[in-house]
């Protein structure tokens, strides 16, 4: 049994905390108070009552810290680390994008495990989450990755190591960058059935592929159509986390999902006009 602290009790943090609490000692480090966790999963309603802390001063060292806030909340989330990190603690950064390690520069890279998660989940109230289907987790191969994978042995989440994490992260980014069409149209995954919107998604993914290849990811041309097909197969009412932030009036992970393609594209001299334009349009539709 491992001692695990999950920073963030949102869609991903709440779901992972509930699954891990079935066989580990789990503490949830939350910004807003909540009583317990109830996750509506495809197979059953999962309930858990982990220890819940709301004050970083009360945190004690654990074996694993799982950072599951949005990327724009990393600086605030880091306030939990001095209390949670002992000499052997590892930090798993479970966030979208391709810069997981860079977001927590205060932790040594060798103690940080970047995590790519595919687990569509939506928070409906504090501690109440709908998990749309069983999920997958990918981490870099090596001792730390293998130890992280072992935490999920008794869950429905298929966790694996990969020898090519760079490609795994960019493949996920290809899905995420195209998900901006949902936030712009305020329509869940079913919007991908609109052929005009699907063409926009393909163009976003093409830009992502060009930049990802320059960063060392092995991304096939067929990924362009695969992203559209994957979205069409998702639950039609599935709301991606960018769309969820937009409708809730929260900040958005625009830099981590589309801006990063523009930034790294500039570094390599690769034009990314569509990711740039749609991120600007979505940001402006707030102001
Ligand atoms: N949702 C999904 O289906 C998927 C999301 N992802 C990625 O996972 C990451 C997390 O997303 P998601 O779970 O959807 O995000 P949510 O917005 O649902 O949850 C984030 C949680 O972090 C909490 N938080 C923010 N700051 C702090 C802090 N300083 N201390 C403690 N808690 C804090 C928020 O608190 P509060 O309750 O006060 O808002 C919220 O509960 C993102 O990078 C996202 O892109 C990846 C795959 C799927
Ligand atoms: C692709 C998807 C929808 C689920 O894994 C996601 O990453 C998100 O909501 O941010």
TrEMBL record:
Pathway: Cofactor biosynthesis; (R)-pantothenate biosynthesis; (R)-pantoate from 3-methyl-2-oxobutanoate: step 2/2. Keywords: NADP, Oxidoreductase, Pantothenate biosynthesis. GO terms for molecular function: 2-dehydropantoate 2-reductase activity. It catalyses: (R)-pantoate + NADP(+) = 2-dehydropantoate + NADPH + H(+). Residues 164-284 form the Ketopantoate reductase C-terminal domain. GO terms for biological process: pantothenate biosynthetic process. Belongs to the ketopantoate reductase family. This is 2-dehydropantoate 2-reductase. It comes from Sphingomonas gei.
